[in-house]
Amino acid sequence: MSSIVQVQQDMLDRMNRYADLASGPAVRPAAQLSGNAPAQGIGASFEQALRSVDAEQHKSSAAMAAVDSGQSEDLVGAMIQSQKASVSFSALLQVRNKLTGAFDEIIRMPL
């Protein structure tokens, strides 16, 4: 049960960081966004999030397949893994929807 809470807390922390970045000045140099690390950009961040959600989905599928085939008796663990994957995917969709909405708003701005 604590792993679900941990995943939810991680996603909440990410969403808060993105909200803090979005509420700052309109234009910031890329070096300030990432501190001392090299600038990655939003595309790299979204790709990293997408890959981590994909990894969660694969873990969930493997756990469910192991339970289905009788190789594992850990039904509870498989269900928890499935819920973690579901929460991760839902959070990713929410971020995608927010980014799409922001992009649409920028497109509609008058010049």
UniProtKB/TrEMBL annotation:
- For the keyword Amino-acid biosynthesis, the answer is no
Q: Which GO terms describe its biological process?
A: bacterial-type flagellum-dependent cell motility
UniProt entry tagged with the keyword Metal-binding: no
Keywords from UniProt, A to Z, are: Bacterial flagellum, Cell projection, Cilium, Flagellum
Kindly list the places in or outside the cell where this protein is found, as annotated in its UniProt entry.
Answer: Bacterial flagellum basal body
**What one GO molecular function would you report for this record?**
structural molecule activity
An annotated GO cellular component: bacterial-type flagellum basal body
- On the tree of life, the source organism's domain of life is Bacteria
Would you identify the family this protein belongs to, as annotated? Belongs to the FliE family.
Q: What is this protein called?
A: Flagellar hook-basal body complex protein FliE
Q: Which organism is it from?
A: Pseudomonas nicosulfuronedens
